[in-house]
Amino acid sequence: MKNDTICAISTPLGISGIGIIRISGPDAYRILGRIFRPAKNIQVSEMPSHSVHYGHIIDGKKIIDEVLVTLMKKPKSYTREDMAEIGCHGGLIPLKKVLSLCLENNARQANAGEFTRRAFLNGRIDLIQAESILEVIYSKTEKSLEISSKKLKGYFSSHLTEIRDVLVELLSDIEAKIEFPEEEDIKKYSPDMLLRIEKIISLINSILSRAGKGRIIQQGINAAITGKSNAGKSSLLNAFLKEERAIVTEIPGTTRDVLHESININGVPVNVIDTAGIRKVKGRIEKMGVDKALEWMKKAEMILLVLDGNRKLNKYDTQLLEHLKNKSNYILIINKSDLPQKIEKDYLEERFPENRILSLSAKTGKGINSLEKKIYSLIIEGCGEIQGDEVFLNFRQEGKIKEAKNLLLKIREAIAAEITIDIIAEHLKTAIKKVDEITGRDISEEILDNIFSRFCVGK
To answer: How many Cα atoms sit within 13 Å of 132 on the Cβ side?
Structure first.
């Protein structure tokens, strides 16, 4: 219910310096007045907006916790309702007790994402900005944070506003012709209609082209480390992370399952997957590990095939090399460059481009920087240089803007075929609806429920 007052713990439960309880709604300050005793003799209702007050949370006469309370009066708050944040000590018991007092005084436990949902419903942010809050929270690199923050400030929304304004103007022109046929020739198009449609198509194409880079920066790419047993795959993962994340021994087959870690390469999150070594398996568990490794070779965006430079190629190496024939994003890593080299490097250079072969020592770290540069060069080879004007579109947003573009392409074809303008009007109405579904002007409760269910309860 929009007119009730909600509350929730907004910080992770556990032992910490502070914990925050958030409360929002028409009765927020009445509830706070019952449970908060400020150090200064002042009523909560008389406290100015955007002020912080020291005092105690009380249960009757009993002091529960020493707190700082921050007040934000409507409409200048996150939800555009009366809001407060209670800064308690971060232990589990004080947080739960203060929350219980809010609930006992007729506040309601907030649902997942309900604070942000109210911000959207009250017009403080549009749906794109609401979704970008999650992107900010889950940012993996400073670059992905920058893109999400720009989106939160309305960078993408402003483009959609421009698109919508042009479409509404075109629809208004056409509907005027249809409404007053005695004054307007309904078979005649406005002279600049095609020009304006082309401009919007071009803008959408620009957004979609930058969205590909944005997705890479926000979500990263999967890079699978593969190779035969004891080639140094786990040592390579540890060298990337600069810590002992994977167990490394001289016993082949130490890694039986898949390890996932994320590293930052020039602002791009690279999700590194350390797979089990390819070998003759003994038992069902080892077979499952090898099967997973081969599966990752098929679905990863990049393959880092590790070869043991201290040994000659064997049948497992050649089998893995065969898997690279139809791949475009791969790097052959000749590991153990700190040891005498016995690998047939000429054999590799005859069959693979020189710029895809790199020697390094995962043990000493020599060559790791060169490998990271090579990974980055392959990333930008596929998506283009990362400039800083990227925009991240989630699948819902990208799908809707592509649907709008397809309708505009139909309008362009209709103009070329001189189809009557009432057909074009229907296409324009549907295109506007698609844009409104992205920003949330026209959106179903079911979709809203799905979007905000991904948020934590206190956001």
So the answer is: 26
